[in-house]
Amino acid sequence: MDEKSVAIILLNWNAYNDTVECLHSLEKLVYQNFHVFLVDNDSKDQSYEKLRADQLSGEFSLPLTIIQSGSNMGCAGGNNVGMKAAYEQGYEYLWMLNNDTVVDQHSLTRLVEEMETHDEIGIVGSKIINMNNNLVWFAGGSINQYLGTSTPYGIDQQESEEFNTRKEVGFVVGCSMLFRRELIELIGWLDEDYFIYYEDTDWNLKAKKAGMKIVYVPDSLIYHKESSSTKSEELSPHYAYYLMRNGYLFVKRNNPKYKMIALLYMAYRIVKFHLLYVLNKDNKLKRSRMIFKGALHGLRNQIGQFSD
């Protein structure tokens, strides 16, 4: 296969060790025509300085550009910084990849091979395995446009043939998402209004509406470190805030005629989130307040990073 140029977009925020491990796994890729654009989202743990020092000392044997965003721009804003740099330099494909991942050596090859099969394919995504328990973390997914929710296939299930079939899906997560540069020209950049969560869901839906296909590629394997901070027992109160707010914003932005349905579902979510993220957890008052703030800010169209 004639290798197309690929820009790998990594976003670091206070996660030096994860980012270093991810970069070292990328060094082993069989696919060779790539360049890593690593964006630091104004980390406070000196990881940017450490990564720059590592680069200067020759720690990484791969083509690497490190960019300091200058502020915490969230997932959408930080990834956009890297995407814009790659786009301006003419890369044909861009691979958005979480920095808390380890990639299989054939993962990028398999994604590009799938993309090359048909011009109507705009986005392809990997099978993602949870490194903590070796269970499936993501095997494609679907979007509910009425409620503002997304459903990942295979989460917390054992590997099986069910998840080994290449198929067209409703969305793939930004944890491992390869797309054509033309997609940016067609639907624009990630929507920074979301700040974190839903920016990739929103982008997938826009791609679908623009007539592009989204394909799950099980032969592309990614291993993801689902840290304890993402478990419901440990979740930051801000997690529920962004899910609550952005779920409603997602419907209001993409299918405004369904916003009454989304509003009713948001009321149900308030109860559900209290059961999941408040009951039997610490900081109950703060957690409850953030849930209600998320609902209120969604109604008020308050966007970007959380602010009282």
Protein architecture, described:
The structure is a single chain. The protein is of the alpha/beta class. 38% of the residues lie in helices and 22% in strands. It is built from nine helices and twelve strands. Strands 1, 2, 3, 4, 5, 6, 7, 10, 11 and 12 form a ten-stranded mixed β-sheet that branches. The model is unreliable at 228-233 (pLDDT under 50).
Instruction: Quote the average pLDDT.
Output: 94
Bin the strand percentage.
Answer: 15-25%
Largest sheet: 10 strands, mixed
Q: From the helix content, strand content and strand pairing, which structural class follows?
A: alpha/beta
| Tally of separate helices | 9
List SSEs in N-to-C order. Answer: EHEHEHEEHEEEEEEHHEHHH
Number of DSSP-assigned strands: 12
Could you tell me how far the N terminus lies from the C terminus, measured between alpha carbons in angstroms? 53 Å
Rounded to the nearest angstrom, the radius of gyration is 19 Å
Give the overall silhouette. globular
Pick out the low-confidence regions: 228-233
Helix content: 25-40%
